[in-house]
Each structure stands twice: as structure tokens, then as C-alpha cells.
Amino acid sequence: MRYGIFSDVHANLDALEAVLRAFEREKIDALVCLGDTVGYGAQPNDCCDIVKRVTRYTILGNHDAAVAGRMDYSYYYDAAREALDWHSRQLTSENMNWLRKLNYFERDGATHFCHGSPVDLEEFEYIFSVEQAATCIPIWDSLGQITFIGHSHLCKSFAIGRERVYEVVTKEFEIHPEFRYIVSVGSVGQPRDHDPRASYTIYDSGRGKFEFKRVEYDVGAAARKIFNDARLSDSFGARLFAGV
């Protein structure tokens, strides 16, 4: 099975369309979105419409849960909370119902998918360091051979042994059966690794091979929609240019 995996679209239609065009060139068998289709960006309905149509699995992210009334987001900082409030008003009833029904977790054999840490799915904990990945050691036996996550907006990979965790620093690697793997796939619509290009990933389960990929998109167009159309916080548009 050749999976195309992506996450954290955050209502950025320009970035999403660029990633889907890239997937068309990759001979993908199944697309998987790891959550946060909404939040921050200017086009939540368009992104929901596309993601629900093209994916085999879409996971519930924390922004999705907030918009759908499935979690308390009163503690979010003001601009993020205001964006979620705006998205709640913009979403069609069909898209809202779709978000309300998304699962925290999906599996396809030994390949697992969730938004944050698999340790406690409803808490949406981050994994972007060896120390955070090590919290998965106690659940080693229940982990998939590889678990794909989003949430951090960073491209990170960790090989988890029964006693130790190693960060995998290459952009592509092959799976070794003595480890379990946690792969954070980065973000389509709000990258945070100082690279403004949209992030996506390819996993060939038959060959046991994984690969991070990036694609350029019209960042200026996406930012202008935030500034002029949605009139959300300027910071959400400005950060797209720097990938932070």
C-alpha cells in the first residue's frame, strides 16, 4: 500500500491544492489526513469539502474538535480562539456534522494514524523531541509498526525501542522490525520549521519505506485571503511567509 499522508491543512486551500497535485504524481493508493483541517486560515469549508472527498481516513485534530464543540478551547490565545469562533460560524451544517463524527484514531493493519501522541488520544499531546517520544515506551506493544501524527507542524521521526528512543534525522528511511516508529508529518497549511513550503509524506508499507516531501504554493495568495477576506489575525498570514 502506498499512502499519501498529510496534516494540519488549517483552512489553507492554496497549500492543500498544491499538495494534492503533488500526490497525483506519486501514484498513491490511499490518502490520509491527520487532522486540523480547520483553524487559522481563510477557507475552512473549501478545505473540508475536499479533504472529506479525497481521503480514506481523516483524523480529528484539536482545532477540528474545538470548532465542532467536542472540546473546550476557552484557554486558547485570543487570535486562535477568534479564528475558531469565525470558522464555527462559516462552516456548513454538513461540514460541521462531518467534524463531529471524525475519530481520534484509525489503523490500517500495522499502520496507525492519530493527531497527537498515541498515549492519550483526547489530550492532543505534542511529540517533537526524544523525551516526548519516550512517553510511548510504556505502550510499545500496542503501537503500530509505524504511527503517523500531526499537531506539531514539524517534520520529525523517532525510532522507539523497548528501552530507548532515537531520532531519525534523514528525510527518508526504511522500517526495521525491532523498532516502532512515530512520524510527525509536518503541516500543509501552517509549517513551523522555517520552510514555508507545504509538507506531505509518502509511506510505502510493502517496501517499508518512508519519505518526507515539500511543495511550493502561492503563499501570498493564501495570506491575502486571511488579511482581506476572512479578516483574521494578520499574524496567521504573516507567518506563512517564514514558515513559523
Automatic annotation (TrEMBL):
Record-linked InterPro entries: Ap4A_hydrolase, Calcineurin-like_PHP, Metallo-depent_PP-like, Pesterase_MJ0912
Xref: Gene3D superfamilies: 3.60.21.10
GO MF annotations in UniProt: phosphatase activity
Xref: PANTHER family: BLL5683 PROTEIN (PTHR42850:SF2), METALLOPHOSPHOESTERASE (PTHR42850)
Occurrences of domain Calcineurin-like phosphoesterase (ranges): 1-125
Protein name as it appears in the record: Metallophosphoesterase family protein
GO cellular component: cytoplasm
